[in-house]
């Protein structure tokens, strides 16, 4: 109940023995015709009737491996995500049919292990809770990195298209685009994909088998971020701002491109905080040493590349004022994404 899933005990024992064990384990409370079934009773039903009662069964007694397979198929047709445990050679078909097959590592046969997705090394049923926690954490980390990667890709393409159409100029050099991908693939992956399991994920409802990887909230974040970055960087690229910030020096164009590149990197840095804030408070984020080290490494890498290796990225050094302004652009991008979403969720609730 804590993680919103239902346990069904499948056994070849007789009904009375199975009921006693299930009640002792807390699986079965009140006994009724719907939550206690035998393999023979379930086998005689039609496919439609099996689907109707499969979700209600808590004790499945006197069940053969083929009866167990019928139950798994009925649950899957009903749209449920099914995990099945097994250890013998007769469980292989059920383990293969289930969405997640869990084989026992100590007592399980080689055939059961080969046909399973996950092996429980200690043969402890409670360990499945850890499996669920790790899987939910992994799924969340994948969502975060996909959102981060989409934001970078869509934003970069949108900025380049707008700049070429409006100003007939390319805002980023090829080597700068390569560096952006380097930051995303290395630092972004470490900051978002590498994260220990979080206990609060166990209290969330499970992800449905037909649910989308990219949620509606994630799409909102992506759209808001892209619109903000395209507008602000298009403004920075305008001739008026160009003369105001850089004057009429020959390096003005390079300064502008370097500044746009720098601003985009800081938008990504603050965007990582925004992505992590989806299910974490700021205090929890700041306790993650790996995340902070990765963010610090990203900023240090950017300083070294911009200030000392500018010749390799077709850029120039930036003064302190432009660094502060680039950081502000990134900070405002985080606020521009966070607060509208908070207001929208508040009004919807």
Automatic annotation (TrEMBL):
- Molecular function terms from GO: ATP binding; ATP hydrolysis activity; metal ion binding; P-type calcium transporter activity
Q: Which residues form the Cation-transporting P-type ATPase C-terminal domain?
A: 170-333
- Asked whether the UniProt record includes Plastid among its keywords, one would answer no
Under Gene3D superfamilies, the record lists: Calcium-transporting ATPase, transmembrane domain (1.20.1110.10), HAD superfamily/HAD-like (3.40.50.1000)
Q: Does the keyword Transmembrane helix apply?
A: yes
Q: Which residues cross the membrane?
A: 146-167, 173-194, 219-238, 290-311, 323-341
Q: Which keywords does this chain's UniProt record carry?
A: Magnesium, Membrane, Metal-binding, Transmembrane, Transmembrane helix
One cellular component term from this protein's GO annotations in UniProt: plasma membrane
Name of one Pfam family that matches: Cation_ATPase_C
- Provide the protein's localization: Membrane
Query: Primary place of residence?
Result: membrane
NCBIfam families cross-referenced by the UniProt entry: ATPase_P-type (TIGR01494)
Q: What is this protein called?
A: Calcium-transporting ATPase 8, plasma membrane-type
High-level lineage: Eukaryota, Viridiplantae, Streptophyta, Embryophyta, Tracheophyta
């Amino acid at each position: 109940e804590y993680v919103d899933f239902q346990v069904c005990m499948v056994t070849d024992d007789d009904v009375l023995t199975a009921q006693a064990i299930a009640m002792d384990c807390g699986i079965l409370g009140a006994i009724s015709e719907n939550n206690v079934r035998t393999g023979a009773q379930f086998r005689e039903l039609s496919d439609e009737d099996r689907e109707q009662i499969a979700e209600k069964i808590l004790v499945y007694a006197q069940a053969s491996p083929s009866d167990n397979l019928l139950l798994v198929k009925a649950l899957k047709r009903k749209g449920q995500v099914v995990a099945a445990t097994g250890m013998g050679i007769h469980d292989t078909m059920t383990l293969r049919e289930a969405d997640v097959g869990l084989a026992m590592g100590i007592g399980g046969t080689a055939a059961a292990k080969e046909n399973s997705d996950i092996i429980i090394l200690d043969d402890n049923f409670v360990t499945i809770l850890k499996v669920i926690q790790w899987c939910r954490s992994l799924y969340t980390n994948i969502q975060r990195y996909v959102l981060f990667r989409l934001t970078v890709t869509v934003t970069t393409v949108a900025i380049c298209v707008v700049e070429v159409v409006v100003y007939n100029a390319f805002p980023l050099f090829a080597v700068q685009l390569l560096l952006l991908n380097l930051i995303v693939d290395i630092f972004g992956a470490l900051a978002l994909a590498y994260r220990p399991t979080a206990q609060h994920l166990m209290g969330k409802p499970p992800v449905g088998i037909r649910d989308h990887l990219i949620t509606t909230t994630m799409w909102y974040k992506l759209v808001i971020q892209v619109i903000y970055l395209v507008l602000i960087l298009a403004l920075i690229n305008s001739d008026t701002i160009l003369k105001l910030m850089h004057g009429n020096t020959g390096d003005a164009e390079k300064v502008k491109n370097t500044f746009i590149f720098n601003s985009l990197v800081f938008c990504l840095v603050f965007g990582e905080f925004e992505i992590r804030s989806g299910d974490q408070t700021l205090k929890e984020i700041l306790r993650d040493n790996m995340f902070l080290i990765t963010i610090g490494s990203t900023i240090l890498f950017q300083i070294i590349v911009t200030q000392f290796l500018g010749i390799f990225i077709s850029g120039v050094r930036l003064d302190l004022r432009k660094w502060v302004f680039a950081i502000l652009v990134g900070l405002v991008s985080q606020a521009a994404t966070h607060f509208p979403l908070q207001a929208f969720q508040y009004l919807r609730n």
